[in-house]
Amino acid sequence: MGKLIPVILIILGLGGGLGAGLMLRPQPDQEAAQETEPPPAPPSRPDASEIDMFEFPNYFMVPLVVEDRITAVVVIQIGLEFRSDARALVTASAPRLRDRLLQVMFDHANTGGFDGVFTAHDTLGLLRRNLLEAAQHTLGTDVVLGVLITDLLRTGT
User: Fold this and answer.
1) Of the candidates 138, 133, 52, which has an alpha carbon nearest to the alpha carbon of residue 94?
2) I want to staple 131 with a disulfide (CB 3.0 to 4.6 A). Which of 92, 107, 147, 153 is the partner?
3) pTM here?
């Protein structure tokens, strides 16, 4: 009987905590939920004649480091889709873009994004999305429309 008392106290404590959590939970504001507008639609994609492509002249080289040693290198060629009227802005911003995109690729490598089956749809989709966000952060969401990974190679063991 003495061993049963702590178990009963634990069950009562869990039940009391659950009941208090349910009672003190904030109720959703019905009026605010009805007044909110739906999120704005993403900007429409321009016609193909209004889209241009910028391919970086040099490859991006990303070292893969394991235990303070470079074990492999990933070589990537990237292109950006952008509005045709922004070519001068993209060309002038190429060094800043390269810096931002390279940092995203370093972060991707450091989190294990290039380990194992690094060409899987989910893995490359995450990298492409992060690259697009970095490019749009640098030039604007209305300028950069997409990121294309045109070449991808991992060398080493």
Assistant:
1) 138
2) 147
3) 0.68
Angle at 88 between CA 61 and CA 97, to 5 degrees: 25
d(CA 95, CA 85): 19
Q: Which amino acid is at 12?
A: L
Q: Which fold has domain 48-156?
A: Tetrahydropterin Synthase; Chain A (3.30.479)
Q: Answer whether 79's CB lies under 8 Å from 148's CB.
A: yes
d(CA 108, CA 132): 14
| CA–CA distance, 61 with 15 (Å, rounded to integer) | 56
Q: Are 74 and 61 in contact (CB under 8 A)?
A: yes
Q: 97: closest CA among 131, 127, 126?
A: 131
**Are 101 and 78 contacting, i.e. CB atoms less than 8 angstroms apart?**
yes
Tell me if 150 sits within 8 A of 79, measured CB to CB.
Answer: yes
